[in-house]
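The data are quoted verbatim for reference:
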Amino acid sequence: MKAFARWTVLLLSVGTVGYGLFAYFLLEPGSTVHPEMKAAYAEHPVRILAHVGFSAVALLAGPFQFFPGLRKRMKLHRALGFVYFVGVGVGGVAGFFTALIAYGGLVSQAGFGLLAIVWLWTAAEALRAIRQRDFTRHELWALRCFALTFAAVTLRIQLGLFGAASGSFDDYYPLLAWSSWVPNLIFIEWVLKRR
C-alpha cells in the first residue's frame, strides 16, 4: 500500500472513531440517528455501545498494520494484532445482535447481520492461519477482515452522500446495510488478485 493510501485509511479511520465515540458515548444515545432508531438505542444500549466501542478499537488498531516500519517490529505487530482481533471479536458479536434490531427491516437486518458473520469469519481465518504459521494466508485474511472493519468508514461516507443526494433516509438506509461493505470486499479481492 502506498504512503498516501496508508495515511488516508488511517485518517478516515481516526475520524470515524472520533465521531463514533463522541456521538455514542458523550451525547445522549441515539441523538444523532433517525428518530425511530432512538427507541432501539434506549432499549438495547449494552449491545450497541459494545459494538461501537470494540469496533472502534479494531478500526483504530487496524490501519497501523499497514505501516511497514511498525509491522516489522514483531512485538508491536503482535500486540496491535491482539488488540485488533479482540475488537473484531467483541464488536462483531455485538454487531450481530445489533443487526437484529437494525432500522430498515429485514433488508437492513440481513445486510448488517451478514456483515457481522463474514467479519468474524475472516478474523477467525486470519487467526487460524497465524497459528499454523502460514504468514501469507494470514495476511490475505487479515486484509479481508480489515476491508470489513472499514465498512464503518464507508457507511459514514455513504450516509453523507446519500443524504445530500436523496434526503429520504427510509429509501436509502437499507441499501447502506449492503453497500457499506460488499464493495469493500470486492475491492480487496481485486487488489489481492492483482498481486
Notes: The chain has a mean pLDDT of 92.
